[in-house]
Write a structure and sequence with these properties.
Helix content is 30%, strand content 24%. By secondary structure, the chain is α/β, with parallel strands linked by helices. The strands form two sheets. Strands 1, 2, 3, 4, 7, 8, 10, 11, 12 and 13 form a ten-stranded mixed beta sheet that branches. The chain has a three-stranded antiparallel beta sheet with strand order 5-6-9. Helix 1 crosses helix 3, helix 6 packs across helix 8 and helix 8 packs across helix 10. The protein starts with 8 loop residues before the first strand and ends in a 24-residue tail after the last strand.
């Protein structure tokens, strides 16, 4: 279990203004956040741009803008922003107004689907390692800031910062249907999928998570669910704890999410909200029982 109080800290901000909530939450992270930004050699901001045809499934540009607001106060060099979208990432940038971020900071938009890679892996159904490339940009960034919407997921149960950081950094060939499908590589069974996210994350961790629950997708996410206005936002220097808190606020038991359970066993928790240092509203006052994906509880077959 993590003993450093800073690594147990999760900030919760509540209200309807997404950009302002990001600024409020990052301010509450204090001097440690400032030092991480100031000392980083390369900052990469990683939104979820899974499907630009469904904007509600993607990271709103104002969430990223709130992060850049903070960074631009501390440094003015180039910040990298990108994802390996399931569909065309460049079209997602345009459709979701990401070029406008240049008004908030010195940025470079990167399509990770076209990035160079380093060797990585995903587990097969037999829990054997199958080679797969991981973004070189992500692996070389010493400050990965994952900025994502809170969503239920039809396979992982939730789509939050850890899944986006790992699955959205894997680089695969474009299919004949024009998509970058990871499912042939990693959706080989619940045990394998959750182990892949957890084990690859240990090798390539993110440094900061910002999870936007102002609008949260319930049901059959990550793209076909229904949006609920929950008006909360989470930030933490421990993305594992951030994901666990978001899952709790969505009405789930974090221990039911395989990759979170595995990471806690590896000492990267906590995932129990009672063991976290919470800044902001009491989590129980914001918790909602959201609709699970259809097929639940088959999502628990990783156990």
């Amino acid at each position: 279990m993590v003993e450093n109080p800073l690594e147990k800290t999760v900030v919760i901000a509540a209200g309807p203004d997404r950009r302002e909530l990001v600024r409020e939450a990052l301010t509450a992270l204090g001097e440690t956040f400032r030092e991480q930004i100031l000392t980083a050699k390369q900052i990469f901001v990683h939104p979820n741009l899974v499907n630009y045809h469904k904007p509600e499934a993607c990271t709103p540009v104002d969430a990223v803008r709130g992060v850049l607001d903070h960074i631009s106060l501390l440094r003015g060099d180039q910040i990298l922003v990108g994802d390996a979208g399931y569909h065309d990432t460049k079209k997602a940038f345009e459709a979701l107004d990401y070029p406008s971020l240049s008004r908030s900071g010195n940025i470079k938009l990167i399509d990770l689907n076209e990035d160079q890679t380093i060797p990585s892996y995903a587990y097969t159904a037999k829990l054997e390692k199958r080679p797969i490339g991981l973004s070189k940009t992500v692996s070389e960034s010493d400050c990965n800031i994952v900025v994502v919407p809170a969503k239920m997921h039809s396979y992982y149960l939730v789509s939050l910062s850890l899944k986006t950081h790992i699955i959205g950094s894997e680089v695969v060939e474009r299919s004949p249907f024009g998509i970058y499908a990871r499912w042939p590589w990693i959706h080989t069974g619940m045990k394998a999928a959750h182990r892949t996210v957890a084990d690859v994350y240990v090798e390539h961790p993110a440094q900061i998570a910002v999870i936007d629950g102002t609008q949260c997708m319930e049901g059959n996410g990550p793209v076909d669910g229904r949006v609920q206005n929950l008006e909360w936002l989470i930030a933490s220097l421990n993305p594992v704890a951030a994901d666990a808190m978001a899952a709790y606020l969505m009405g789930l038991d974090p221990k039911d999410i395989g990759f979170l359970w595995h990471l806690e066993q590896k000492g990267l928790g906590p995932i129990d909200p009672d063991e976290m240092v919470v800044t902001g509203p009491k989590p129980s006052t914001l918790r909602r029982e959201l609709l699970r994906p259809s097929g639940y509880p088959a999502h628990l077959e990783w156990k």
